[in-house]
Amino acid sequence: MKIKIYQVDAFASHVFEGNPAAVCPLNEWLDDEVLQKIAEENNLSETAFFVSSAAGIQLRWFTPRGEVDLCGHATLATAHVLYEHLGFKSPKVKFQTKSGELVVTKNDSGFSMDFPASHPAVIDAPINLLAGLGDVIPKQVIASFDYIIILDSEEAVKNLDPDLSKWLQLDLRGVVVTAVGTDVDFVSRCFFPKLGVDEDPITGSAHCELAPYWSSKLGLSLLTGRQISKRSGIVHCELKGDRVVLTGNAVDYMSGEINI
Question: Does pTM top 0.85 for this prediction?
């Protein structure tokens, strides 16, 4: 069997920026074990698989270690493949996912993704979470589907060198570290060691948590976030009640075929 595969740099305007994702269109769903093996072989933070049907486009995401319920950059990459390679013409594409219906709109700014907003709450930080920070003392620790650590400055986020072994057994998806930005509204870094992704370059889904938090702190509904990984990337966020719209661009890196 041959399966078409595209590798796309999401939240990027040029190759080697943003977050790479693999996208595989399928005629029908393969066994989950096969999907997982493909994701493991690709060794990217996410591989997206989708199947088109009369009910809509079903979309799933896999890391090298397992399936996840929500992924922003691989959703953006999938929309890019549909429009740029597979002749999709409608101004909006609706994906059916484990997180409900996700709508992506193609516009002059790139692709805008309408995702559920998640409002973090203040928590007592688990011992292992703090242990991973070493000597760094957070201003605050909050949580949604990730633990979110608020630091004093962009520089502190940039210089953080966490002990990821301490975060392997945490019960939530991962750890997001964030602070007010110097030339953007906020900056962040995202770590998902238990998913096999030590540091994710650009994490769209994390901005579903970050945008509501920073909107409440800064009094803004339109925000610009920069994820300051080695590849770096910009995510434009608009908070709309219980939804958040994330906008970014994507570029092709590679296309080919998988033989299984």
Answer: yes
Bridge partners (DSSP) of residue 191 are 175
Share of the chain above pLDDT 90, in %: 92
pLDDT, tens only, 83-133: 999 999 999 999 999 999 999 999 988 999 999 999 999 999 999 999 999
Rg (CA), the chain: 18
113 alpha-carbon distance from chain centroid: 11
* Dist CA 221 CA 196 (whole Å): 33
Q: Which contiguous run of DSSP H or E holds residue 216?
A: helix 207-218
Active site amino acids: 46
Structure tokens belonging to residue 163 = 């002990």
Residues 6+ apart with CB under 8 A from 118: 144, 145, 208, 209, 212
Give 220-260 as a 3 state SS string.
Answer: CCEEEEEECCCCCEEEEEEEECCEEEEEECEEEEEEEEEEC
